[in-house]
Structure formats: structure tokens, C-alpha cells
Amino acid sequence: MATDRKSADPGKEPFLKILRPLVETYFAFLGKADRHIRSLGLTPSQFDVIVTLGDTKGMTCKELSEKTLVTKGTLTGVLDRLADKGLVERIPSQEDRRSIFVRLTPKGEERFKKVFPDQIYYMKPYFDRALNGNQMKGLREMLLQLKESFEQPLKGEEK
């Protein structure tokens, strides 16, 4: 695959100026978010599953793996631990015996109603201190654009 070589010095490419701050922001966010989630008695993956299932009637494992940041290989173990805590239940699908439906138990719903707002209001001041509403909206749009760019193959690149 050929690359676009507009600059004689690759170290002067403009996008390099955002890479380090983007990665540092990601790690700073994870550090704060993960520490708080763990203080709530959950791992980040467990929190992700509970929040994704919250306010739903449940979903298949396939849907859950598509809507969370939990990899398919990790999801089974996360669901096992959440089931051991009595927070989720697995129900065999009536339509497809290979498919499992996952939903929060009443105890899981209670946990969701506590941990979701706790995490939101814990993280909110970090965003509010740095960005106003319009800036957040603009940043969201830019991040989604950048994500889409990475998801699309470049000319001559395989999917």
C-alpha cells in the first residue's frame, strides 16, 4: 500500500501534534474511571455490561458483545462473575438454541440504578472543568469522525 508523502519530514506531520495528547487523555480518563468503578465493587468490564443491560429487557450475548467494549473472549468470564454475584441471568433463547439471552436480575437492576449515576456524577466535573456544552458537542463529532476514518479501509487496504 502506498502512503501519501506530502512532507519530506514525517516528524512534522500535523496529526502528530494530537496523538500524544489523545492517548494521554485516554489513559488519564481510564485511570480516574477505573479507580472509581472498582470502588463500587465492580471491574470496568462488569460495569460496562451492567450499564449496557440497564434499562433494557436484556439482549443476546452477540448483541451485548457488539454494544460493550468487552471482547467476545472475555464476555463469558465477565458474565460468569456477574451471575455469581446474582446480578445477571442467562436464559436460553426459545428461537435459537445456540443463542443465550442475558438480562439483569432484580439485584442487578438495583446495582445499575446505583452505580450508573454514581459514575456519571463522579466523572462529570472533569469534563465540565475543561469544556462547555458546545465544545463537548464539537469534540464528540470530531472523535466520531476520526473513529469512522479508522474503521474504513484506505485505498488499496484490505478490510
Helical amount: 55-70%
CATH class: Mainly Alpha
Q: How many angstroms separate the termini?
A: 13 Å
DSSP strand content: 5-15%
Name the helix and strand elements from N-terminus to C-terminus, one letter apiece: HHEHHEEHH
How many separate domains make up the residues?
Answer: 1
**Major beta sheet, specifics?**
3 strands, antiparallel
The residue ranges in which pLDDT falls below 50 over 5 or more consecutive positions are none
Known CATH architecture: Orthogonal Bundle
Strand and helix map with partners:
Blueprint: H1 16-39, H2 44-53, E1 59-60, H3 61-67, H4 72-84, E2 88-92, E3 100-104, H5 106-130, H6 133-151
Antiparallel strand pairs: 1-3, 2-3
Helix pairs in contact: 1-5
